[in-house]
Amino acid sequence: MLRRLVTSLTSVVAVTAVLTLLLGGAARATVPPGFGVDPVSRSSAGADVRVTDVTVEPNTGFDRVVFTMEGTDTFGYYAGYVPGFWKTNDQQVVVEGSTFLEVQVRGTRNWVDPSVRVTLTPHLPALLQLKYVEENEGEARYGLGLAVANGFRVSTLTSPPRLVVDIAH
Where does the record place the AMIN-like domain (predicted)? Predict the structure, then answer.
């Protein structure tokens, strides 16, 4: 009887551990105030931009990624956690990390003047790697490989137009 109870408890613990890993629970930590885990976006009404530079920098409590653009301030964006990165032709783009954040700059003029194609591997506390995924139909996509899903926040700046993504440690 005791042996059967121990076997049942062991099975429950094993199933719980597998489900936690599959659902991302092992890679998620406490989200600090001001940061979130839900996708955020803004439409690109009349935008005409090109990403010219991508920089990363460590800060106290978060790592910052800045996408600098030339063009209008009306660019759109999307940022959200994803299971990985694939191009439209189903080719996987491998990025270092255990959790992944996709950042899209919308309203790009890729058919005339493509955005910068960059790979950065800073190995910061939260951001391990940033990699250009692709640019297609007016949307430049970048993959951010993270150490853990602690949350992120997005803001924009003008003169020049910039998209700022802060990733909590």
Answer: 50-169
Asked if 149 and 136 touch (Cβ cutoff 8 Å), the reply is no
**What pLDDT, on a 0 to 100 scale, did the predictor assign at position 68?**
98
Could you tell me the two tokens for 41? 């976006």
The residue extents of the domains of the chain are 1-28, 31-168
Classify domain 31-168 at the CATH class level. mainly beta
Helix boundaries (H) for the chain: 2-22
Distance CA 21, CA 151 (A): 18
Q: Which one, of 130, 134, 128, lies nearest residue 120 by Cα?
A: 130
Residue 151 above 50 pLDDT?
A: yes
What are the φ and ψ backbone dihedral angles of 26, each rounded to 5 degrees?
-70, -25
Task: State how far the Cα of 94 lies from the Cα of 129, in Å rounded to an integer.
Answer: 10
10/106 Cα distance (integer angstroms): 49
∠ Cα 31 25 28 (to 5°): 25
Nearest to 106 by CA among 60, 54, 42: 42
Coil vs helix vs strand at 73: coil
pTM, two decimals, is: 0.82
List Cβ neighbours of 151 (8 Å cut-off, separation of 6 or more): 31, 32, 35, 36, 37, 167, 168
Contact by Cβ (8 Å): 49, 71: yes
pLDDT of res. 15: 33
